[in-house]
Design brief:
The complex is a heterodimer of chains A (192) and B (226). Chain A has 192 residues and is mainly alpha-helical. Helix content of chain A is 77%, strand content 0%. In chain A, α4 packs parallel to α7 and α4 crosses α8. The longest helix of chain A is centred in the middle third of the chain and has 22 residues. Chain A starts with a helix and ends with a helix. The N terminus of chain A is likely disordered. With 226 residues, chain B is of the alpha/beta class. Chain B has twelve helices and eight strands. In chain B, the strands form two sheets. A five-stranded parallel sheet of chain B has the order 3-2-1-6-8. In chain B, strands 5-4-7 form a three-stranded antiparallel sheet. In chain B, α3 packs across α4 and α10 runs antiparallel to α11. The model of chain B has no long low-confidence stretch (mean pLDDT 92). The chains are: A mainly alpha (192), B alpha/beta (226).
């Protein structure tokens, strides 16, 4: 946490929370996904873990709201109510610069996501952990290192590396040296 | 002996691909001493030893250290100072909208910082950003500008200092280590020597997270004799 008054007065964080709240209330899943993406790219540039957490939450909400076995469950309206309530309180805390309250509200949302995910999901790995990895991979694609990306969202570094390995991230750039050229440089050094 | 530093990204790739013993064979045949900093040992062995999912890999790396072909370099006071200096320089290299972009974390900084102290001129690293920062820092700026669609400024003073400290480092990835092992006979002590097994090992490294493209592997494989 930064703890800087200036930072906590920065309206970006609560504007993002507003956007997440509106999109989740209206079940606009593409918007939630896009907010998650924009937030993590910005968090990567600004090394902003709070914004990264908002991004991870937005991604979780996008995934949950996209799945029928979540939204058709009888508990879903109550889940939505709890999450929306905490989003609004978190927004208000961020606006007032109350870091502790903001953290508590976001933790409550994460707790609710983990609870409903545990109840209804078929996967062993929980949605929140997957979301941390997914958003960290976007931070890595945006230019920060693997460790920095993992640190930003709290993703496991090793899981992140494996996830990145199955994406096209490393195919998007022109290599500076080919495998042959790097091999030749290594041989040269070993034979020196 | 020639010292080669290995970043945790490459160590994970090689170990996950069950190819860690090529390090031993390369060490024996080429007179290489592979070194990792203490933080990499902690991240790759001590921490995952307590997680069932990652325990086997941690055991493999611990065995490599116990067998002596992978050495753990001490994080001395000098290394610690250099690591913090590097972290500061790397964090001041690029700024966007007046804010510094923190490109690398202390883990990567420690591997770089311990290289000079241990006389290692070559770094094996599968992670893309640190590699770009060392080899083509100006391109990091262009890359960030393209990605973020906004102006990114480079601090030339910080760049000069960064180059003074780390400009001479040469970089390879786990795919080049595998290719070297194939050339020198170290590979066939682990797998039968064939184009197919080489290609499979290179793709295993890619899917394990090594920053290499399909195109690079395909180009390389075209030039490998059967």
């Amino acid at each position: 946490m930064r703890g800087s008054h200036y930072y906590w007065m920065d309206p970006k964080l609560w504007k993002r929370l507003d956007a997440v709240t509106k999109a989740f209330a209206a079940r606009k899943t593409p918007d939630l996904k896009q907010i998650g993406r924009d937030s993590i790219e910005e968090a990567a540039v600004e090394n902003d873990p709070e914004l990264a957490l908002v991004s991870v939450v937005a991604y979780c909400l996008y995934k949950m709201a996209s799945k029928n076995h979540f939204v058709k469950n009888r508990r879903w309206p109550r889940v939505v109510e709890i999450i929306l309530g905490n989003l609004k309180k978190g927004r208000s805390a961020a606006e007032q610069g109350d870091e502790a309250r903001f953290t508590r509200n976001l933790a409550s949302i994460v707790g609710e996501i983990q609870f409903i995910d545990h109840e209804l999901s078929n996967y062993a790995k929980d949605l929140f952990e997957k979301a941390k990895i997914k958003q960290a991979s976007t931070a890595y694609a945006a230019g920060v290192s693997l460790s920095q990306a993992a640190a930003l969202t709290g993703a496991d570094r090793k899981e992140l590396q494996k996830y990145i390995g199955i994406t096209r991230i490393h195919d998007e750039q022109e290599p500076l040296y080919s495998i042959q050229e790097r091999l030749a440089k290594m041989r040269e050094l070993l034979n020196a | 002996m020639k010292n080669i530093a290995i970043d945790s990204s490459s160590l994970i790739t090689i170990s996950d691909s069950c190819l860690i013993r090529i390090l031993k064979h390369l060490s024996d045949s080429e007179g290489i001493s592979f070194i990792i900093p203490q933080s990499v040992y902690y991240e790759s062995v001590e921490k995952p030893l307590k997680i069932k999912k990652f325990e086997l890999n941690a055991v493999r790396i611990r065995d490599a250290v116990e067998d002596g072909y992978l050495k753990v370099a001490k994080t001395t006071q000098t290394v610690r100072q250099k690591m913090l200096e590097l972290n500061e320089i790397a964090s001041s290299l690029c700024t966007a909208k007046g804010k510094r972009i923190k490109l690398i974390d202390l883990g990567e900084a420690e591997t770089l910082a311990m290289m000079k102290e241990n006389n290692a001129g070559l770094l094996v690293i599968d992670e893309r950003t640190t590699r770009m920062l060392i080899e083509e820092p100006e391109n990091v700026v262009h890359f960030l500008e393209r990605r973020h669609k906004s102006r990114v400024d480079l601090d030339f003073g910080a760049l000069k200092r960064f180059r003074e400290l780390f400009g001479g480092i040469r970089i390879v990835r786990s795919v080049e280590l595998i290719a070297l092992a194939y050339e020198t006979g170290a590979f066939e002590k682990e797998l039968h020597k064939s184009k197919q097994s080489l290609e499979a090992a290179l793709y295993s490294a890619k899917f394990g997270g090594c920053a290499v493209s399909f195109e690079e592997i395909n180009d390389f494989m075209k030039k490998v004799g059967s």
